Amino acid sequence: MSGQVLTVAGLVAGYVPQVDILNGVAITVAKDEIVTVVGPNGAGKSTLLKALVGLVTPKSGRIALEDKDIAGLAPSTIVRQGLGYVPQRENVFETMPVEENLEIGLKPRRDLPLRLRLEAMYALFPRLRERRRQMAGSLSGGERQMLAMARALMPQPKVLLLDEPTAGLAPRFVDLMFEQVATINRSGVTILMVEQNATRALAMSHRGYVLDLGRNAYEGEGPALARDPKVADLYLGGLHG
Amino acid sequence: MTDTTQTERTEARASVLSSALAALPRPALLLAVLIVLLCALVIAFGPVRALQATVNGFVAGSYTGLGAIGLTLVLGVLKLVNFAHGDLLVTGAYFTILFAWLGLPLPLAMLTAMLATAALALATEKIIWQPLRLAKAGSLQLFLSAIGLGLVLRFTVQFFAGSQVRTLGANVVTSIAIGPLRLGTLQALALVVGISAMVIVGLVLRFTSIGKEMRAFADNRALAEVSGIDTQHIINVTWIASGFLAALSGILYATAIGSFNPNFGITLLLSLFAATVLGGIGNPYGALVGGLVIGLSQEWSTLLFNARWKPAVGFALLILMLMFMPQGIFGRAKRRS
Amino acid sequence: MSCKIGRLAAWAAVSALAIVASAQGAGAEPLDLKIGALLESTGPLSELGPPAEKAINLSATVANKAAKDAGVEAKVTIVSADSQGDPQAALSATRTLVDKGASCIMGPSTTPESISVLNGITMQRKITLWPLASSTRLRTVKDDGTIYRPVPADDLQSKALVKAIENHVGKGKAVAIIFRNEPYGDALSKSFTTDWQAEGGTISSTISFDPQQESFDSEAGQAVDTNPDAYVVIDYPETYAKLGAALVRTGKFDAKKVFVADALSFAKVPDNIPPEALEGAYGVAGGSPTGTDAFKAFNKLWDEAGGVANASYTANSFDAAILCFLSAVEAGSTEPGAIRDKIRSVTKDGAPQFTIETLADAVKTAATGKEIDYVGVSGAFRFKDNGDPSSSLYDVFQYQGGKQVKIEQVNVK
Ligand SMILES: Nc1ncnc2c1ncn2[C@@H]1O[C@H](COP(=O)(O)OP(=O)(O)OP(=O)(O)O)[C@@H](O)[C@H]1O
Ligand SMILES: [Mg+2]
Question: Residue B258 and residue C213: Cβ atoms within 8 Å?
Fold first, then answer.
């Protein structure tokens, strides 16, 4: 593996001035890795991803995408630098058809040909091709998640941030989703993922971090972390969920 | 396993079906109801009276419908209940008077007035709305600020132009005869411009890049931001478009009606909101169709009741229709998962 | 017992002193009378504002000159405010006037405004109100004798309309009535219907409209559809600009069949009303006896002063302000209640008569406390108990080339 694509150090951030949700998080993601962040509910996992993409403004700390500092930039600027983000909830434009969702996704990279990118996404998620004219609001949960990922992948991001891609999915779709994450990764996209389905997610990740109360609690190789009894003890519910 | 698949499929199919039901038939249903009503009126009152009332309804509807297009944009995209919109119409009409007084020929004065009003709308974004947004003002604060802005605009116009009745001097008495039916020439113009504006705005929203970005922004602001859309740009464009459309409809209204004073905006505002809500917030077709439905119901009602009741009948019908379609004619319910 | 008598005596002495003091005050102190003018400067009747303002200002000039000639120390100043054709605005405008010391209020032009001003302020303070509004409703409101109306009420105007139509269209014809749905239009249309039918005429349609609407094409269509012999239009200029245009657009409208009520009486048709909507139209408005010296003198004054052209009811506004002035002189006081109590003493049937030409003599006589009879430009004032005039002379006019031409006068009871 070559150099770090994403480096986060000493990150402090929160929603209101007095309350910090993240208290010095440090994370690195190397090129072509799958890195998973797990932790109990309310640990600040979603907040971390929001801070990376600029939806929450960091108070202090460093966020570097390759060698560019992106901390404090506007979300639209950050995604143009090569970060893709799939939110946990409300992650598609419900009143727009599938294909327009994808078209909007390409905004950060006006230089890429739309047709080619659409074809690539339909190849990756054939289900979406069938539904291309359908309103995103009427998609099933699994289809929505696919659309949300495809939208974020349209501009060929260097790093894809996924916030709980399997949340609320039927078991059959959970398998499919993890398979697809692996496929995307193999196609050359670095992935930073937050997951409730911790055992499964860590098992397929190169490395993992355990977050608690806005701080790094543990980190290590993905499968090893998944088997670590200390982690299991601490986050029993999460790990066996 | 098969069970789940089955459920998934039925669910998917059901959702497709319900969305088709929800999206398609409301306008069609409405059209059918309107046609049935028209036939009934033709039978009861003869074709000439019924059709003349229909023509008048289209004219009345085009005044409100056109004015509502800019309003529905701001409401739909920026989620702002812009109580100052009626006064932007007024500003457009009075800018025309100002520029004509400064010596511009009337058509040029009108165009300049539209641009000036668009600039004014953008200025309100920079001076009022952007700072309020950054200060995380709630919707009540925004609403009150809009009322205040409306008052400021109205009184500024009154201060410089006085509140006496004005006219743009167009000939409002010529009319076009279609068989036994009559349609004022300027009224026909208002109708044509109204429909054109609706179609243009509709096409821009549907097909252009900025239009798609506006719809995406209206749908989900945070997601639009992380999809790389420059949100401040969208907000600016929405204000410019809204100001331009407001001035266009204000000028057209002032021209076709023939006489006006600085209060015409606030008088019209209720109808503008009614058209917006009935049509489905954020939808330019909805705004115009909403306006036309209100106009038609009011003018048709004059066949049945004394004309003094027509506003009451129009708004009673509005409430009734909203009971059956709370999302409006073209509105779509947002599905929450 | 003796104690009681003592107290009574003391009271009597004090009151006697007070009376003497006030009588002396009347002789010695110069009168500084302020007349409040509620003007329709803006709003739906804004055409009426400027002529009324000029009339009232003229009355101050004339009154001040008369006082000087008579050697009576009295001065009249006009304070004015915009009533905007709106009851709420009229009330706050009146407050301003009263704060500025107005002793009489030259009234607003609509009934809702008059009632709002009356109930809100003038009745309680015994300030006389001189409304130009003509609805019959003002006749029956409780006013404690503060309303004096210098114009005849609409039941008389309705009879004038009947006569005008009979004279220019004929008896027993079919008439369509179009009126704005407000007290003025509502009441006048009802009395016209009764009066016209009593004379054997028919009403082909009665159309009322909401003045807040933007288009009146359906209303116009309904009116012309019945193909009437005449139209009675009871409207304000602001809405008639739209309604008139709609009537012309029907293509079946003949403005020469139109008879407008007094709110549409102007010296010159305003710019915003399409000329075709009023050209050749007839109308009625309260008139002044023409041919009198007072009438000629007033017109001369008007023309010499320059400014806006003469219009209906200017003589009435002028006379009302003069009556307020004379009553103040007669009372020797600018106290509103005292003025109210003297109105009938300066319009006394049988007392020596004066006109604007002999106003100095009127002032001299009134200053001595003797009763007089001021015969105004608009005629003699015989106020009934309810404050309405019994005078009922109407001008019938026609719009010719955009200008009002008086063609006859009708007397109605
Ligand atoms: N928009 C917001 N405004 C204020 N506080 C917020 C907001 N969003 C989240 N929080 C708070 O921040 C803390 C961390 O939330 P976050 O969503 O990052 O947790 P999480 O680790 O993603 O949890 P989960 O596993 O439930 O998704 C929580 O206490 C939450 O209440
Ligand atoms: Mg979360």
Answer: no
